[in-house]
Design goal:
Elements (H helix, E strand, L loop, with lengths): L32 E5 L3 E4 H15 L4 E4 L5 E5 L12 E9 L4 E6 L3 H12 L6 E5 L2 H4 L4
């Protein structure tokens, strides 16, 4: 797998309900424009990689893409045709837990129209609803 953690503290985590809104990672920090989730859900490592490829093909040579989510959580799956019991199963895939308000991707060095087109292509691949956001003007003046 392309994206997965090198080491994990607890190998098999419990799947719980995703509650609340994102309090961290909910503003555009690295780029000028961002793709923000409006719905909670799990995004697999393959989906994150597919979004990266779709965005890189569009902004190749003119802009910089930042990925703000990483698949930390393992999702287990039992093998097919096994009986009940005998534990939880081996880790099957890795997912990123996304809350409403999480900025997932950011773009820098492109026009607003180019960013909207790129994020529209990216939003088609996401399993959660997304929206286009801009960097807030008050964050740009903090570097002085």
């Amino acid at each position: 797998m392309a994206m997965m953690p090198r080491r994990v503290k607890h190998r098999k985590s419990q799947r719980r309900r995703i509650k609340g809104n994102a309090t961290r990672g909910n503003t555009v920090v690295l780029g000028d424009y961002g793709l923000q989730s409006t719905q909670a859900g799990h995004i697999t490592a393959q989906t994150i990689e597919a979004g990266r490829i779709a965005a890189q093909q569009y902004v190749r040579g003119i802009g910089k893409l930042y990925i703000r989510i990483f698949p930390h959580k393992s999702v287990t799956a039992r093998p097919l045709e096994t009986r009940m019991g005998k534990g939880k199963g081996e880790p099957d895939r890795w997912v990123a837990t996304v809350k409403p308000g999480t900025v997932m991707y950011e773009l820098k060095g492109v026009t607003e129209q180019q960013a909207k087109i790129c994020f529209a292509r990216l939003a088609h691949k996401m399993p959660v609803r997304c929206r286009f956001v801009r960097r807030r003007p008050d964050l740009e003046t903090t570097e002085a």
